[in-house]
Amino acid sequence: MADRHPVEPALAAATKKSVRRLRALGRDPKARRDEGLFLVEGPRAIEAALDRNAPLEQVLFGLGARRAFAPLATRLEALRVPVDDLREGALERIATTRTPQPVLAIASIRAAALVDIARDGHVVVVVDVADPGNAGTVLRSAEASGAAAVIFTGESVDAYNPKVVRASAGAIFGVPVVEEDDPVAVLDRLAATGRCRLGATPSGGTSYDQAALGGSAIVLGGEARGLGPAVTEQLDGTVSIPMAAATESLNVAMAATVLCFEAQRQRTAT
């Protein structure tokens, strides 16, 4: 019995340290950047990561979850992804939702740079898009439409925020994501590669089905103010989605979806 006492406190300390680390990955963008890792919450999101060959450092099952999600556990074992079980109560301390998902994963951030962006396909540039749900939907539409990349600039939400990851429905693993502070510098560098920079505006721009979107950079402003003058000055043109008179504008995520799929249509029609 005496031999057990030095072991148990050490184990408890290690567990507390692990929980603190996981909490930080879920809540602190700096912690995510420092480690190059982020949290993925829920079995469906983890399956989506595996479907896209995303590198997972570890998968953690809550109490009884390994048995409840046996096919996922078997798949992880076959892929030799490290798997562990969380102690009772640990999941609630780590998760970022009120009702915690039964399975968590730690995934590697696959950081992309502007120079890595493929020349083919459209690029989506979001400027000051703060809502995680909108950002996740932009990622989802970008991946589904074959975008070359999504670039987060300005005061946009962290692309690896757990809410963004959930809203992306796996797209965070399927489309290259670039994060840059200065949208003006980003637009300058995109112009240097020959991309036409088109800003989305509620009215006054070229109708979206008449604008050349196929290989362009589609630039979308934030929920509160849209595109500011410093960004607008860098654009080669603007594009609008015609609407009935009673509708002032579309949600930024909805506008991104319309423009992304028009870009795909134009690209595949040529």
Structure description:
This protein is of the alpha/beta class. It has 2 domains: 94 residues, 60s Ribosomal Protein L30, Chain: A (2-Layer Sandwich), CATH 3.30.1330; 156 residues, Alpha/beta knot (3-Layer(aba) Sandwich). It has 11 helices and 11 strands. A 7-stranded parallel sheet has the order 7-6-5-10-8-11-9. Helix 7 links the parallel strand 5 and strand 6. Helix 7 runs parallel beside helix 11. The termini are far apart. 42% of the residues are buried.
Can you summarize this structure?
The protein has 270 residues and is α/β, with parallel strands linked by helices. The protein has eleven helices and eleven strands. The longest helix is centred in the first third of the chain and has 21 residues, at 7-27.
The CATH class assignment of the largest domain is: Alpha Beta
pLDDT averaged over residues? 90
Cα radius of gyration in angstroms: 21 Å
Structural class label: alpha/beta
Outline: elongated
CATH superfamily of the largest domain: SPOUT methyltransferase, trefoil knot domain
Helical content stands at 25-40%
> What is the element string, with H for helices and E for strands?
HHEHEHHEHEEHEHEHEEEHEH
Q: How many strands appear in the DSSP assignment?
A: 11
Predict the CATH topology of the largest domain. Alpha/beta knot
Strand order of the largest sheet: 7-6-5-10-8-11-9
Number of helices: 11
Flag low-confidence runs: 1-14
